[in-house]
Amino acid sequence: MLTVGLYAQSTSSMVSMQKWNPIPLSETLHYSVDWRLIPAGTVVVSMKQSAPGTNQGYSTDVKLTSTGLLDKLFHVEDIFHGDYESGFCAVQSTMDASEGKRHRETKITFDRTQKKASSVERDLTNSGKVVKSSEVEIPPCVHDLVGGLFMLRTLNLEPGQSTTIPVSDGKKSVAAKVEAQEWEQVKTKAGTFKTLRYEAFIFNNVLYARNARLTLWVTDDARRLPVQVRVKMQFTVGTVTLSLDKIDPSNALAASAPASKKESPQRAN
């Protein structure tokens, strides 16, 4: 695991993490996906609170489907499911990825007691043969990528401030820096929103080796909606943008305190 840095800052540069934004009891967000400004697919993100009495606090489902010309050239249908305890601490996740002729299933188990995450990837075109497996040490509360996105929505940062979020994909575990950058107005099919632009530093050999930048726009209201997500890769690959199209009716907001003590965010350099 990359070192989880505690940044040495003066008291005046820190912001209290005690004021956490509420998390919806349930929510379904519909996105359109553009690649190089060409319509390329759809993404549906659903989140709901787990049934009373269960150990998990929330569960999420994400479905990515290719459309249009891209679908004719290279069909993609990725289905993700994740279970989380309070604070979106990851418990387990499954990714069923069907991409062209490739069909893989990856299951990750997060053991908070043993402080380990284990990942097993199977080739579903070859009788479920195990093609990759790994194990990595994790902190007591760690997020997968989807849970990390929900966790980001609970934070109270101002432009110029940053913090770290522990994230793991079962192969690697890192403290990913998240930086609040600028207030911006974003227009999508779902409406026009005042947002705060964040950058999450998970690429460039942090969690993933690929050279890329991940930027997110989150609304400045009680819902804290991620209305736009953009991954900017090298020129030969291009830029992928998710834009919010529709919000399904959701239940009332529920306050959720962090499962464990978090570092205070710092002023970005």
Secondary-structure element string = EEEEHEEEEEHEEEEEEEE
Silhouette: globular
Radius of gyration: 18 Å
The count of DSSP E runs of length 2 or more, i.e. the number of strands, is 17
Main beta sheet, described? 15 strands, antiparallel
Q: What number is the mean pLDDT?
A: 85
What is the number of helices?
A: 2
Strand order of the largest sheet: 9-8-7-6-5-4-3-2-15-14-13-12-11-10-17
Strand content: over 45%
Describe this structure in words.
Helix content is 6%, strand content 54%. The relative contact order is 0.20. Strand 11 (173-188) and strand 12 form a beta hairpin. It has one domain (12-267). The protein has 269 residues and is mainly β. It has helices at residues 68-73, 145-153, and strands spanning 23-24, 26-35, 38-49, 58-66, 76-85, 89-99, 102-111, 116-123, 129-137, 161-168, 173-188, 191-201, 212-219, 226-233, 239-248, 253-254, 266-267. The two termini are 24 Å apart. The protein is globular and about 50 Å long.
